[in-house]
Design a protein that fits this description.
The complex is a heterodimer. Chain A is mainly α. Chain A contains nine helices and no strands. Chain A has one domain. The relative contact order of chain A is 0.15. Chain B has nine helices and no strands. By secondary structure, chain B is an all-alpha fold. The chains are: A mainly alpha, B mainly alpha. Chains A and B meet through helix 7, helix 8 and helix 9 of A and helix 5 and helix 6 of B.
């Protein structure tokens, strides 16, 4: 079973590296969205430091959500997903492999680039470290919850708008706790509570989201 | 004895789950729920608006809680109903549970909207602004988004059975959000007043204000029961329109004979 998991991860990673835009586009999107805010609001250091954590997190959230299409779309179109459904291995394991790859190609680059954006938004060093930790704990949640939504809309022709309606409300707790943690560490306050919540929420989603996603896929592929 | 009771309950359960019997029984129940709801809502409104004493801090404007609070309760309750019946439909494949879930959604959304509007109207004299990003108002807004997402998903999937199953999964996933709504009250430092009624042993609301509040709450619940049953009856007729019993019902109620 673990072999299936690993070979799926390898396959999806190879596919992703053949379409490099799949990796780069969410990252560019993330950077551009963050850049828009100083232009739209003000280049003032204090204002940016105040709103920075929230903006970076909202941008990460949108980048992760907009890249969800790559999770199941091509496999749905060419019938691979149906084969997975019919195979003897549990669907949730295979779904989890796909989610892991989605996180590796969208969440992980965002984490790598976040210190740069944190600096641009005048976050303190402590806050940048916190930002990276929250992204490390939070972006997997985004991929996991997003997979459920994508599973529900994958069979629909124009599911993109609907997907955001379904998924964004469920992202809100992550956004609240993460940007609150970064903001608190800017102010020198304790952040362990928020991080514990994020960690707990991630484990919770890691346990249940693959099951919910495979249930959703079964409905979509009926 | 217990065995006999269980057997009876199982029989009732299966009878209710069959669309034909549901249609008949629901038709009998709706007027009862409806009239009791009307009586309770009128009594609760009169009691709340005219008889309950004036609040020493908020004056007369607090009286909107007699609509606001029960509506907010209903908004969460109905989402729970949707998730529960969605789970029942997924596990036991009872079609009627799907019907109840999808009939509940617009009613729940309406109650959520009512809670938001009354909360905002209440906020104007209390906070001096129509909208405050207070934890509970915000989570009520998120709940409205959840309802809208549910209805959007339902209307986007053409096959009604697939739509019902997808919505059931969504409702179960969304129900995770309801505890967060409650915890958000404690988690953020809010402008909203703390929960006043849930402390069952010694509520911090005076009895003369609690009575109309509970009257309104029960009235709203009964109204919901009447409304959801009549919506569900319509849906059952639509989904079962090719069955012979539906044709009989239509003939009986309209007097028109269909071929």
């Amino acid at each position: 079973m673990f072999k299936v998991f690993l070979s799926l991860i390898k396959r999806d990673l190879r596919l992703a590296f053949r379409h490099k835009s799949e990796i780069l586009n969410p990252l560019f999107f993330f950077v551009i969205v963050v850049t828009l805010f100083p232009l739209g609001i003000s280049p003032d250091k204090q204002i940016l430091a105040e709103i920075g954590p929230g903006i970076i997190w909202v941008a990460a959230l949108l980048a992760s959500m907009l890249s969800l299409e790559s999770l199941f779309r091509s496999d749905f179109d060419d019938g691979t997903l149906e084969h997975m459904l019919l195979s003897e291995y549990p669907l949730s394991i295979m779904v989890l492999a796909k989610i892991v790859v989605h996180w590796l190609i969208t969440g992980f680059p965002i984490i790598i680039f976040s210190p740069l954006l944190g600096t641009v938004m005048f976050l303190s060093n402590d806050a940048i470290v916190t930002l990276m930790i929250t992204l490390l704990l939070g972006t997997p949640i985004l991929s996991l919850i997003g997979a459920i939504g994508m599973g529900l809309v994958v069979a629909l022709k124009r599911g993109g708008m609907l997907l955001s309606l379904l998924v964004l409300p469920l992202y809100i707790p992550v956004l609240i706790f993460s940007s609150n943690a970064v903001g608190s560490s800017m102010a020198g306050l304790a952040i362990s509570g928020q991080l514990y919540f994020l960690a707990a929420f991630m484990v919770f989603c890691l346990t249940l989201a693959p099951i919910a996603t495979s249930a959703a896929l079964r409905v979509s592929l009926e | 004895m217990i065995k006999a009771i269980m057997a009876f309950l199982v029989k009732v359960f299966y009878q209710l789950a069959s669309p034909k019997h549901f249609y008949r029984i629901a038709g009998k129940l709706i007027p009862w729920f409806g009239w009791f709801a009307a009586v309770l809502l009128i009594a609760g409104s009169i009691d709340g608006l005219f008889i309950a004493p004036v609040d020493y801090q908020q004056g007369d404007s607090y009286r909107i809680i007699f609509i606001h609070v029960p509506a907010a309760w209903m908004s969460m309750f109905i989402y729970m109903v949707m998730a529960t019946s969605g789970a029942i439909a997924l596990i036991w494949k009872i079609k009627l549970a799907d019907v109840i879930a999808s009939s509940s959604a617009p009613i729940g959304a309406a109650f959520t909207f009512l809670a938001l509007v009354t909360g905002s109207i209440w906020g104007k004299p209390m906070w001096g602004a129509w909208w405050v990003w207070d934890a509970r108002l915000t989570s009520e807004l998120i709940l409205l988004f959840l309802y809208l997402g549910y209805m959007a998903l339902e209307s986007a999937i053409e096959d009604p059975r697939a739509a019902a199953r997808a919505c059931a999964i969504l409702a179960i996933v969304g129900v995770v959000n309801i505890p967060i709504i409650h915890y958000s009250v404690e988690w953020w430092n809010t402008l909203h007043q703390g929960a006043t009624v849930s402390k069952m042993d010694k509520p911090s609301i005076h009895l003369s204000m609690l009575i109309p509040l509970l009257l309104m709450a029960v009235g709203f619940k009964l109204y919901y029961a009447a409304a959801v049953l009549s919506r569900a009856r319509n849906k059952v007729l639509l989904t079962e329109q090719n069955r012979s019993w539906v044709k009989e019902v239509v003939e009986l109620e309209t007097g028109v004979k269909h071929g």
